[in-house]
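[09:14] KT: can someone run the structure on this one? pasting the chain below
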Amino acid sequence: MSISKAKGKLGEMEVIDGVTFNFINLRIPVNKFESEKKEYNVSCTISEDDFDEIEERKYKVSTETVKNDKYESRFKVPVPYPDQRKQCVVRFGCSNLRKDKKTGEMVEVDYELELRPKVFHVVDGKEVDITDKMLSNGCKGSVFYQTHTNSFGTMAYLRKIVLDEVVEYVKEEPSV
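[09:31] RB: done, structure tokens below
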């Protein structure tokens, strides 16, 4: 596995295939860590090779490793790479706001806008938008992101995820 490139409406994107998603927050934006600002984000487990490449590129993304014996209790899914000593977790996100070109004000990203990250499921070779579905941990597929370098470093902005295996969320009934 390695990080590959793909063309999109916004230009070139980087793609990591074969990831297991630990959580997907693309339906409704959530608060950034210790902030009132909101973002769309995903956490995914990737191969050690892809993780090393992310670390070498020094992207401004949240990364961590989780020991195999702690992984399942934390993420409620089996270890995706059992042959690895540790599981490599990366979190990608992007703001739910954009600057309005006419007014200069920050406004929420419209659903139709390409900047808004979405979830797609491949059905009969076509990407079907399933962003509004409640998804559970353990979905598998690819994560697409774009990078931008500024004075803070190289940022990686989530653009979309494409799922090969969808695990829909099922609310557990309370036991009596």
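[09:33] KT: thanks! DSSP finds two helices and eleven strands in the chain.
[09:34] RB: yep, looked fine to me
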